[in-house]
Write a structure and sequence with these properties.
heterodimer, A: mainly beta, 11 strands, 0% helix, B: mainly beta, five-stranded antiparallel beta sheet, globular
Chain lengths: 113, 112
């Protein structure tokens, strides 16, 4: 596989569930990102990891917990979410944290019941 | 605060026509700009970028124009095809910064 992949592509969960989103990049990049995309709103940056270190945490509620075990993988652990958290969650990567071009995965469509 | 926005939320064109999608930005320190295309059910796809030392950059059937005086960016698509139907949004960044700021997007619909 090439590029940035995300699993699952669709996820429905209750407010008491715990689930995880997975992202993998096959581009040899050093930086990875989580974004939230809600209907008719610009992309919202959630987290940035550079060389497995978190370099930005954009005031995201603690019910979202990122994990970056290595430079190719990024997870977003979800617990006790709210219905307003329903959105498309996008993962992206770039060569380095300050490199301009980010490449996106297909996203995970999350629905919280 | 800084923002990047698009002038029109929707644009409908006939197949074969040229399309122009506009973007206004407010951060005068931004010096790097990207256009992304997002098809339904997919993630954003990089189309073309431009740095502030340029006014124009061309790709395959696409051209990006940058007017720094009025802080305006446009994406021109030549001979628009049905496969071009998607949401297009711009993003801007300061080279010295780490964050891309995204606009809201324009839905382009190409009618056969």
């Amino acid at each position: 596989e090439t590029g940035v992949t995300q699993t699952p592509r669709h996820l429905v969960m209750g407010m008491t569930n715990k689930k995880s989103l997975k992202c993998e990049q096959h581009l040899g990049h050093n930086a990875m990102y989580w974004y939230k995309q809600s209907a008719k709103k610009p992309l919202e940056l959630m987290f940035v990891y550079s060389l497995e270190e978190r370099v930005e945490n954009n005031s995201v509620p603690s019910r979202f917990s990122p994990e970056c075990p290595n430079s190719s993988h990024l997870f977003l652990h979800l617990h006790t979410l709210q219905p307003e958290d329903s959105a498309l969650y996008l993962c992206a990567s770039s060569q380095d944290w300050l490199t301009d071009t980010q490449y996106f995965g297909p996203g995970t469509r999350l629905t919280v019941l | 605060g800084e923002s990047v926005g698009l002038h029109l939320p929707t644009l409908s064109v006939q197949e074969g026509d040229n399309s122009i999608i506009n973007c206004a930005y407010s951060n005068s320190a931004s010096d790097y700009f990207i256009w992304y295309k997002q098809e339904s059910g997919k993630g954003p796809q990089f189309i073309i970028d431009i740095r502030s030392n340029m006014d124009k950059r061309q790709g395959q059937r696409v051209t990006v124009l940058l007017n720094k005086t009025v802080k305006h960016l446009s994406l021109q698509i030549a001979a628009t095809q049905p496969g071009d139907s998607a949401v297009y949004f711009c993003a801007e960044k300061e080279t010295s910064g780490s964050r891309l700021t995204f606009g809201e997007g324009t839905q382009l619909t190409v009618n056969p």
